[in-house]
Each structure stands twice: as C-alpha cells, then as structure tokens.
C-alpha cells in the first residue's frame, strides 16, 4: 500500500461504525489497493475462494461509467473474508487487471474472464461495457442480481428493479437499518451527483473522501444477502432461462450498438417476462 492509502484507511473506523448499524453481526474490513504489489496479494487471496455460494460480489464506479466515460474504482466484496477490496483503477490504470499474484500467477483479468470463478453483479451492463471498452475484459461466469430478482418474482416481470428498491424491499431491514444505509448513500451522493451539487470527478480525487469510500462499500456489502434471498426463490424452470439472459446481457453490452443510457434499460428482457 502506498502513502496515498493513508487517508482512505483512516476513514475505515467511521465507515465500519456506519455500516455496523446496518450489518451489526458482521466484522468487516475495507482494503484500499493502489499499489501493484497489493493487487497481486489481493488476487492470491481471492483466486481460490469457494464458488458455492459465490464468494465475489463486484461493483464499479467512475465518471459516466460506460464506453463513453471512465473507470475509477472497482469494489470486490469477498464474502468468506468479509472484506471489500477497493482497487484504484484511476491510479493504477490497466495494471489493476494485468498484475499477477506472486503465488497464483493469475491476474484480476483472469478472475473476471474465468467461467469457473463465479462473480455476482447487480445490473452488469454498464460495468461490462466499461471493462470491455477500456480494458478489453470479456466477463464470464456472471450472475446478475437484477435478473435474478426479476426471475424470482411470482408475477409482473415487465420492469426491472433498481438496487435501492431491492435492498429496501427484500432484505427485511428495520427502519433504523434503512435510515443508516440511506444516510451513508446520501453523504456520497452529495459529493458526486450533479443534481445534488456534486461532481462525478469525486471518484477520481485522491485521497478518496471518506464519504466516497462509504458510498462505494455500502451497496456491495449487501449483495451476498440479496443473492441468498433470490436464490431461495428461484425455481428450476427459471434457472436455464436466467443463465441465457445473463449471458445475452453481457454480449449486448460488448456490442457496437449498445446504448449505455436510456429509458428502455428499465424494461425486462423479453425472455424473462413470460415462460
């Protein structure tokens, strides 16, 4: 870790306190990764994590995250370790993905492109678009929680749900837990959301503001719990359809005609609307 990590690391205490209000029974660690040696060490730790259930839950942040924007941070929550690795793409650029672990001789690109190592995203489309367009990474072995939620519904599959709705609706959080999560999100939004007076360049500021680190970690920490909820609800008839829809979603995001933004993105894939 370089000295640039000192300020983000200093924010961990307050961040853990805030997230502890929402996930009180889990010890968590946030690891800021902005040196190639730290990337290699992280890869060695996550490369052999269990696949059943999935161990890796991933999200990305950036300015206009897509082929038309930039990538700044990749968050990887490793469920068995209860740790979130925040990879500093802004500082390390492609070295984040190409640096190999000294023990495994594997890279993050190897992890992301592996069909065997399962990775869980929520709405993988723009993440996949950005990874493919800027770094040539072709995601494989993906589960998309947004599509899992859709397939697990008993009815009305016309529109997709956003992550905030899923967290509030499906995790059974208390009022206090929802408020704690919302406060953490709001602090980050105030720094980067233009409609709230912020700027997306907040993801590129180093050292990263504590509020931005809190925002980055807040959502990805919930993904394993959502996976458990939707996995229990899925029926056998939906699983092959869900797998095909997820693979199609990744392929579409890598196509020349993919549009990262638009109202049509709220519509469910036709293959998952009806049996």
TrEMBL record:
<dbReference type="GO" id="GO:0008408">
    <property type="term" value="F:3'-5' exonuclease activity"/>
</dbReference>
<dbReference type="InterPro" id="IPR002562">
    <property type="entry name" value="3'-5'_exonuclease_dom"/>
</dbReference>
<dbReference type="InterPro" id="IPR036397">
    <property type="entry name" value="RNaseH_sf"/>
</dbReference>
<dbReference type="InterPro" id="IPR012337">
    <property type="entry name" value="RNaseH-like_sf"/>
</dbReference>
<feature type="domain" description="3'-5' exonuclease">
    <location>
        <begin position="42"/>
        <end position="228"/>
    </location>
</feature>
<dbReference type="Pfam" id="PF01612">
    <property type="entry name" value="DNA_pol_A_exo1"/>
</dbReference>
<dbReference type="GO" id="GO:0003676">
    <property type="term" value="F:nucleic acid binding"/>
</dbReference>
<protein>
    <recommendedName>
        <fullName>3'-5' exonuclease domain-containing protein</fullName>
    </recommendedName>
</protein>
<dbReference type="GO" id="GO:0006139">
    <property type="term" value="P:nucleobase-containing compound metabolic process"/>
</dbReference>
